[in-house]
Design goal:
This protein is an alpha/beta fold. The protein has ten helices and five strands.
């Protein structure tokens, strides 16, 4: 489902969209994948959603192909920045669409990165260093923070070094999307809004989401 008003509004939004998926709560199961944009006033613009059986590379590829076709501007879509929570299959899906998205950039939600990080490396000190590295606005500052992290816990340092900083640190973000957000809160906010609708049959759920977007 992609309403024309949302498609038209995307032209005046930042080239930055959040991708997310969440489980449906009715007896037939399945998942809903959503795309949320960010307008010039940093407010939420729900763009499209789709119901799939499972979240994987094939379903994300199919959804992104439909999105690019719906927006009708492959030249603009090619330069989008995609913010995600490292969903299953999303990274290989974007990589498989390089011909349609040759200049696409990606970011990972820091809140979800930290949720995985703290399972292996708990403690307030490491948490503060991780977020300080993410908020660093130039490479030299990022390197100083990472050096301090290495002194505190070498394994934590190696763990974060294994994730390219262009995905999670402001020091490596490109300026094209005109947005330096570190978290995927827009998508999470939309998911929380439709939480009641997700327990309804598919047609009723889609109608309720459609009414909210209108």
């Amino acid at each position: 489902m992609c309403l024309k008003a949302c498609k038209d509004s995307m032209i005046s939004c930042r080239p930055f969209i959040g991708l997310d998926g969440c489980f449906l709560k009715h007896k037939y199961r399945g998942e809903i994948l959503i795309v949320v944009g960010r307008d010039a006033n940093d407010q939420m613009l729900p763009i499209a959603c789709v119901i799939v059986e499972v979240e994987n590379k094939d379903t994300w590829t199919w959804f992104l192909e439909l999105l690019i076709d719906d927006l009708g501007r492959p030249d603009i879509c090619a330069a989008y920045t995609f913010m995600s929570d490292q969903q299953k299959g999303l990274l290989p899906a974007i990589q498989s669409l390089q011909s349609l998205l040759p200049r696409a950039d990606q970011r990972f939600c820091m809140r979800h990165l930290y949720a995985n990080f703290k399972k292996k490396f708990p403690g307030k000190n490491l948490k503060a260093l991780m977020w300080e590295a993410a908020h660093s606005t130039y490479p030299q500052q990022w390197e100083k923070v990472m050096k301090r992290m290495k002194e505190v816990n070498n394994d934590a340092f190696k763990h974060m070094l294994g994730i390219p900083p262009r995905y999670w640190s402001k020091s490596r973000f490109i300026s094209r999307p005109l947005c330096d957000t570190l978290v995927n809160n827009m998508s999470e906010a939309f998911n929380s809004i439709i939480v009641q609708a997700r327990s309804k049959p598919i047609m009723s759920m889609m109608e309720e989401i459609c009414l909210y977007m209108m």
